[in-house]
């Protein structure tokens, strides 16, 4: 019986702890590893095989130039020729070269029109080199495009669904050059927090040192934790990072209220608090209606029509029910219950939150998009 009581007490204690604390997060989901980064690539090329939805060459002369260059490289002399095809389009090709990508591996690429092409559906990208910021070619791309929309038109109407002027080529880029980076020679590795915070950085430091049982990590500032690779006594830097990135840490987040005014969306963080405050809210509606009158002249008279303007203005104000008290919330659920008690729409709630913030009763960072 005593063992059962102790087991039940342990379960209740663990359950209550899980309810009052945030769930731990792996370090790999909180930081970026110094030097382990992707690289952006860009190139321009030609898409062929379109069903009459390509560039108008008068409006996109660069397409004709690209096509001429490709044909000349293939041994076709097009000097002085006039091109008027509608099944080709000049495009920008973009991709992201992931870290440690090796020669011969395949990556996805994105293709977007440069001119007035209406759709890339059914098109094929001709071999296109992709350059990095240093001007070197790292990837060569080619393949059939999967467009993200559809376009159709008739004599007097047209319809567009999605974005047919942009598409992707899954595994359409082949890595031709590797980025020179000797990861095994690293002695010091810095972890850059995606959201800098002194408390979170300190927790990461303590968690890593506890994992290895010695001083391995050192917090440098709110956004950086330095790792001493030799102190980990692992076989290589890769082994040390592989062990560190799966250590669980409970991050500390700033209290934030994020508002999207276009959609009326409100998102509150767990640590948002509101002091005791009284709110009164009422809507003022002004309606303006124009009803012009046309005065006709008498029959057989030497007169003309006169338009007499007439404007009706109606001002209405919703009845105010008085001040509503929002009690000080010590948890997110209490804050939400207090705001819901006002019985207003999300649009009005945005204005109320801004006013509460201005009054100094909202203890959170207020972000409006």
From TrEMBL:
- Note whether Ribonucleoprotein occurs among the keywords: no
A Pfam family found in this protein is FlgI
Keywords from the named record: Bacterial flagellum, Cell projection, Cilium, Flagellum, Periplasm, Signal
Q: Which domain of life is it from?
A: Bacteria
**One record GO biological process:** bacterial-type flagellum-dependent cell motility
Q: Which GO terms describe its cellular component?
A: bacterial-type flagellum basal body, distal rod, P ring; outer membrane-bounded periplasmic space
The signal sequence is: 1-22
Which molecular function GO terms apply here? structural molecule activity
Which cell locations does it reside in? Bacterial flagellum basal body
Which InterPro entries has this protein been placed in?
Flag_FlgI
Please describe the quaternary structure of this protein.
The basal body constitutes a major portion of the flagellar organelle and consists of four rings (L,P,S, and M) mounted on a central rod.
Q: Which NCBIfam families match?
A: PRK05303.1
The record's PANTHER family line, in alphabetical order, gives:
FLAGELLAR P-RING PERIPLASMIC PROTEIN FLGI, FLAGELLAR P-RING PROTEIN
In UniProt terms, what function does this protein have? Assembles around the rod to form the L-ring and probably protects the motor/basal body from shearing forces during rotation.
Entry's family note: Belongs to the FlgI family.
What protein name is recorded for this chain? Flagellar P-ring protein
The species this protein was found in = Falsihalocynthiibacter arcticus
- What is the gene name? flgI
């Amino acid at each position: 019986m005593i063992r059962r009581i102790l087991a039940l007490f342990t379960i209740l204690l663990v359950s209550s702890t899980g309810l009052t604390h945030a769930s731990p997060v792996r370090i790999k989901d909180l930081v970026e590893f110094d030097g382990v980064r992707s690289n952006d690539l860009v190139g321009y090329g030609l898409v062929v095989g379109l069903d009459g939805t390509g560039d108008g060459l008068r409006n996109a002369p660069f397409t004709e130039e690209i096509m001429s260059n490709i044909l000349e490289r293939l041994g076709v002399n097009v000097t002085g020729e006039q091109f008027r095809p509608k099944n080709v389009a000049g495009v920008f090709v973009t991709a992201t070269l992931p870290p440690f990508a090796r020669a011969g591996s395949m990556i996805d690429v994105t293709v977007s029109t440069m001119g007035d092409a209406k759709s890339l559906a059914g098109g094929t990208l001709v071999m296109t080199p992709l350059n990095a910021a240093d001007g070197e070619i790292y990837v060569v791309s080619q393949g059939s495009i999967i467009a993200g929309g559809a376009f159709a038109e008739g004599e007097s109407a047209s319809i567009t669904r999605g974005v047919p002027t942009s598409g992707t080529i899954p595994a359409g880029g082949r890595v031709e050059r590797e980025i020179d980076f000797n990861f095994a020679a690293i002695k010091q590795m810095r972890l850059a927090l995606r959201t800098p915070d002194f408390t979170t950085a300190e927790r990461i430091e303590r968690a890593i040192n506890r994992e290895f049982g010695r001083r391995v990590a050192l917090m440098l500032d709110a956004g950086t934790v330095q790792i001493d690779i030799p102190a980990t006594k692992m076989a290589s830097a890769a082994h040390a990072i592989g062990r560190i990135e799966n250590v669980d840490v409970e991050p500390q987040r700033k209290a934030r209220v994020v508002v999207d005014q276009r959609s009326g969306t409100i998102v509150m963080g767990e640590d948002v608090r509101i002091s005791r405050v009284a709110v009164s809210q009422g809507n003022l509606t002004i309606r303006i209606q124009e009803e012009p009158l046309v005065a006709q002249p008498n029959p057989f008279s030497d007169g003309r029509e006169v338009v007499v303007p007439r404007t009706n203005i109606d001002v209405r104000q919703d009845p105010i029910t008085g001040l509503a008290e929002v009690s000080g919330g010590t948890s997110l659920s209490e804050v939400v219950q207090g705001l819901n008690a006002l019985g207003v729409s999300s649009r009005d709630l945005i204005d109320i939150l801004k006013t509460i913030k201005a009054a100094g009763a909202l203890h959170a960072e207020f972000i409006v998009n």
